[in-house]
Amino acid sequence: MKQLTDELLNEFSQGSPHAFQTIFDSFRMRIFYFVKKLIDDRLIAEEITSDTFVKLYRLHDRFNTLNNIQAFLFITARNASLDYLKYRQRQRLNLAELQAHEEQEIDFPLFAETNIQADVLQFIYEEIEKLPQRSKTIFKLFYIEGVPVRDIANMMKISPQTVANQKHTALKLLRMKVLDRPGLLLWLLFLAGEKR
């Protein structure tokens, strides 16, 4: 391996890729282990090490001594590692806050995103199927397929007011079926408010 001579440093300061490769080979593992000791993550340590050398090469014309290069590499790698540790800490705090928020929040999922257990969901669908034909059709089009009231009215050749009345009737009938199931009742109340 070519020694880190004054001549090599001069070539590096002029942007020589060969001189950079020699410096890279000389310091890469030292920087890598230094970073890995700080953050204890091999993949991120490799990333930070690579980025550090990219920054060194971009600023090649600013270095004329080996000590300057070495100091730059270790300081840059240390700062990047500390930034990563701060970022990881923020991510953990954000995740903890999100989990705490989710635990406190009452979840009223829609059909496509439901967390209701399968037997409960089955119960709802069975009750929907028992609705009068017109109410059932309108309920499915509006609440499950997301078709707007005006489009339903055009499809069924009825007035928008009739569609509104029918979906109101369907919700009322479903509420009566689930009065003894508070969780489902809350879900239906949410559905009624969300989809007006």
From TrEMBL:
The keyword DNA-binding does not apply. GO terms for biological process: DNA-templated transcription initiation. Gene3D superfamilies: 1.10.1740.10, Winged helix-like DNA-binding domain superfamily/Winged helix DNA-binding domain. Signal peptide: none annotated. One of its GO terms (molecular function) is sigma factor activity. Residues 24-90 form the RNA polymerase sigma-70 region domain. Pfam families: Sigma70_r2, Sigma70_r4_2. Keywords: Sigma factor, Transcription, Transcription regulation. Residues 124-174 form the RNA polymerase sigma factor 70 region 4 type domain. Belongs to the sigma-70 factor family. ECF subfamily. This is Sigma-70 family RNA polymerase sigma factor. It comes from Niastella caeni.
